[in-house]
Amino acid sequence: MSLTGRTPPLPVDLHVGRRVAERRMSLGHTQSDLGKALGITFQQVQKYERGTNRISASKLWMTASFLGVGVEYFFSGLGQGLGLAEPDGPAFDYEAPVTRQSIEIAKLSPRLNIDQQRLVLDLMRQMKTDEASA
Q1: Positive or negative torsion for Cα 86, 77, 2, 97
Q2: pTM, rounded to two decimals
Q3: Is residue 13 very low, low, confident or very high in pLDDT (cuts 50, 70, 90)?
Q4: Which part of the chain is the HTH cro/C1-type domain (predicted)?
Q5: In terms of domains, do 90 and 103 share one?
Q6: In whole angstroms, what is the distance from residue 119 CA to residue 129 CA?
């Protein structure tokens, strides 16, 4: 338990929330749009996406329907057991915030050739290194 008396979100709740946010933003929906479809406030959607509140089975089903995916979409990449990555994949990074920019980067990068992708990746790594040393 944390100092606030609340238990921290479980990895599965963080992962599912992240997948909801990614899909919602990739379709251009706001948290209010999703909230209206689910009959809840945008603040509750925020709590779902952050993993602060767990999404009930019925709300997850409604979310999947609204976002045009199967319920399994939200668990993709989570893996078996204790919220670890698929055996052949890297561990899921729960700390990186999902933003419109990060989704756009992810959408645009496959359109670049491999050399361009390497240049962009090197630039991003250098920017991260510069930030850490500042």
Answers
A1: positive
A2: 0.63
A3: very high
A4: 20-74
A5: no
A6: 15
